[in-house]
Amino acid sequence: MAKERKLKSFRNPIMALVPSPAFHFVSASPFPSFLFSPRKSPRNSHHHTRPITVPTAAISLFLCCLLLSLAILGAHVLSIVPTWQDSSPPCSLSFPSTVSASSLFVSLSSNPTAEEGIKMAASGTPLIPVRNPGSNLSEEEAEFWKQPDGEGYQPCLYFTLQYRKASARISKEKRRFLVVVVAGGLNQQRNQIVDAVVIARILEAALVVPVLQVNLVWGDESEFAEVFDVEHFKRVLRADVRIVSSLPSTHLLSRQSIQNQLPHDVSPLWLRTKFSREMNEEGLVVLKGLDSRLTKNLPLDLQKLRCKVAFHALRFAAPIQELGDRLARRMWVEGPYIALHLRLEKDVWIRSGCLTGLGREYDKIIDQMRESEPEYLTGRLNMSHIQRRQSGLCPLNAFEVAWFLKALGAPTGAGIYLAGGEPFGGTKALQPLMQDFPNLVTKEMLARGAELSPYAGKSSALAAVDYIVSLSSNVFLPSHGGNMGRVMQGHRAYVGHRKYIKPNKPAMLPLFEDSSISEPELGTIVRKLHRRSLGQPEARTNKRDRDVIAYPVPECMCKSRKAIF
User: Which positions, given as ranges, span the membrane (predicted)?
Assistant: First the structure.
């Protein structure tokens, strides 16, 4: 088992649990072998002339030592398990919000031993604790930095007995294999990898480590093991799905056909009906183009598996994780910080059909590119750019983000980490935001020396660094929707309900344009508008077509076991 990487300066001692010497004492004690090992044959036969009796003193000594061992073990357990105030058992141990999302009660497909539980507890993404903003704050600033109430929801990944029984067979599959090619940016790839694992489970097949398709937009040729920790991926999922690095030689000449496009919202029944014959005859199915094809409404165990893959198994490769941790610590030491996913890249403006806010010269460039490649336009074709903006379908530009942050009470001296690609328009696009919030940095500004040079042209690795720094921030704000915003919403909930601000663009943009509203009054209205969209638990069951990765409550997070079972 690979050693857990450490956050050198800010490591929380609760983030990784290791057995105390008491456990080693019990395991090394001679008493278990005394109880369960057969008695050795005596060397001299004449000693058998009478029945063997155990002296009373020996029995007393054994019982005393056994009680002492149990007492030490009990003291250790009480030292790590909190006392609960009510009679109902919790869904997981009560970790502070600053601790890694992993829970001792995250189970493998079979009932975990204490050692497996401890290893699972250390398997999630390591996080820096939320930075204390201090006490010398205005009322608005204190409200801005305040973390949401998690309402007692914590990770809860118990699998049913039926699931665990099936796992004994599925996790050893050696004849049926699923190959999946994933495409898009990092967070699209993450979503497709999650679905690939679930589909392999549905088809009762072993999964070949997913193939990352060459990204034609960014020219990234990275392989899975360059972005993700492949051994960790295999290890965490070893009891759910067998994962192999490559196809066995017996399957290399299979007459498989590549399924390029699955229909939307496919169910487990559809997948079994479609691919069972091919899987039984050829032992191989190859899928491509999985993005958002699998239904969001799966049986409970498969929803939990989605969360296990997304929040436990998909850890970034060690060099990327370590770099992201270093940059996050550099932000942390300067004070609480905001991670801002500012969607101002050229392709975003082309796809959304919106105006850049940079003037006619820049809008003309986008219009020309949109006309030359109309297939890139994913915005609603029957709406003008004004209607799109009023409907909240356009990214907030830098000027609007600065206005929004000030209305929410963000201190202008706050550190801001800017995640995302190069904005269209360069420095000009960021100027309104930098003018009001001068402590704005990017990974390029934060990195030292040649720290980023190994990842030149590696868009997925650079996006992974953004992901790590964003996940560790006090506040995360996306200026537009998209895969990173959705994944970050769910992951921040899963690790302790870290603040996530979802802009209510249709409601607030008309206020921004109303000159009759004073700035203090505007701030009050905006804060009231967003009171229930700051990262508080939001049940997926309110809208069944929501992704459990974005809304892990209640399938993957619960208040008690009774809340789910």
Answer: 52-78
Q: Which residues, including other chains, have CB under 8 Å from residue 510's CB and lie 6 or more apart?
A: 390
Mean pLDDT (the chain) is: 79
Q: What is the pTM of this model?
A: 0.77
Q: How far is CA 390 from CA 350, 405, 512, in A?
A: 18, 19, 12
Q: How far apart are CA 360 and CA 408, in angstroms?
A: 30
Strand partners, 338: 416, 475
Residues contacting 74, CB < 8 A, separation 6+: none
**Quick one: which H or E segment has residue 430?**
helix 427-436
Pairing of strands 211-212, 177-182: parallel
List strand residue ranges (DSSP E) for 107-156, in order: 154-155
Supply the DSSP symbol for 560.
B
DSSP codes, 469-484:
HHHTSSEEEESS-SHH
The residues near 565 (Cβ < 8 Å, ≥ 6 apart) are: 158
Among the listed residues 124, 221, 244, 97, the one whose alpha carbon sits nearest the alpha carbon of residue 172: 244
Report CA-CA distances (Å) from 410 to 302, 405, 492, 523.
40, 5, 20, 11
Q: How many CB atoms lie within 10 A of CB 305?
A: 27
Checking 357-364 for CB contacts under 8 A at 24+ apart, the result is 357/397, 357/398, 357/399, 357/400, 358/397, 358/424, 358/425, 358/428, 358/429, 362/424, 362/425
What are the tens digits of pLDDT across the range 105-142?
A: 333 333 444 334 333 433 466 678 888 888 889 999 99
Q: How far apart are CA 175 and CA 179, in angstroms?
A: 13
Closest CA to 527 of 550, 511, 538: 511
